[in-house]
């Protein structure tokens, strides 16, 4: 389960939130997430592939040149995992950072909790 959870965490970061191509992003969402997935974030809650796809695409459009970079190694515990990350222009200091926590069910992400760190002034 650890290897699968690690893969889901990394692929979510790159293939969903880091993907600029809408077709590849949608394919990744369908591969990685359960149909009834729930995403909890500071801006609200998303349910299902359609809502996640729209949000990830809209977010990507606001900063298409940003890269998502894992910070440290993922950690897993039973059917959950977490991964810290940063996002900013490729090769530069991240403009924002956060932590993803996933709950895995039947080999896919059933829930994603996105914690954003405070942006320094």
Automatic annotation (TrEMBL):
Annotated Gene3D superfamilies: 3.10.450.50
InterPro entries according to UniProt: NTF2-like_dom_sf, SnoaL-like
Name of the molecule in the record: SnoaL-like domain-containing protein
All residue ranges annotated as the SnoaL-like domain in the record: 15-111
């Amino acid at each position: 389960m650890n290897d699968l959870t690690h893969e889901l965490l990394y692929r979510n970061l790159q293939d969903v939130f880091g993907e600029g191509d809408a077709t590849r992003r949608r394919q990744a969402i369908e591969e990685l997430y359960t149909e009834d997935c729930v995403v909890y974030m500071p801006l609200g809650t998303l349910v299902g592939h359609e809502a996640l796809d729209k949000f990830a695409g809209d977010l990507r459009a606001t900063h298409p040149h940003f890269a998502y970079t894992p910070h440290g190694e993922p950690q897993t515990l039973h059917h959950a995992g977490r991964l810290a990350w940063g996002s900013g222009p490729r090769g530069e200091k991240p403009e924002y950072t956060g932590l993803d926590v996933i709950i895995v069910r039947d080999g896919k992400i059933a829930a994603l909790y996105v914690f954003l760190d405070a942006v320094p002034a």
